[in-house]
Amino acid sequence: MEGENKEYLKSALEQWCSVIEQNTQIEPGYYDNYKVKRGLRNSDGTGVLAGLTNVGQVHGYIMYEDEMIPDDGKLSYRGVDVTDIVMACEKENRFGYEEVCYLLLFGKLPTQKELDDFKALVGAMRPLPFGFREDMIMKTPSNDIMNKLARSVLSMYSYDNNPDSTDLYNIIRQSILLFSRVPTMVAYAYQAKAHYFDGKSLYIHNPQPELSMAENFLYMIRPDNQYTDLEAKVLDLAMILHAEHGGGNNSAFTTRVVSSTGSDTYSAIAAAIGSLKGPKHGGANRKVMAMIEDFKANVDDMNDRDAVANHIAKLLDKDGFDHSGLIYGMGHAIYTKSDPRTVQLKKKAEELADVTGNMKEFKLYSLIEELTPEIFAEKKGKKHMCANVDLYSGFVYKCLNIPPELYTPMFAISRMAGWCAHRIEEVMYGGRIIRPAYKSVCGAGDYVPIKDRA
Ligand SMILES: CC(=O)SCCNC(=O)CCNC(=O)[C@H](O)C(C)(C)COP(=O)(O)OP(=O)(O)OC[C@H]1O[C@@H](n2cnc3c(N)ncnc32)[C@H](O)[C@@H]1OP(=O)(O)O
Ligand SMILES: O=C([O-])CC(=O)C(=O)O
Question: Fewest Cβ atoms closer than 10 Å to its Cβ: which of 212, 260, 290, 329?
Answer without folding.
Answer: 290
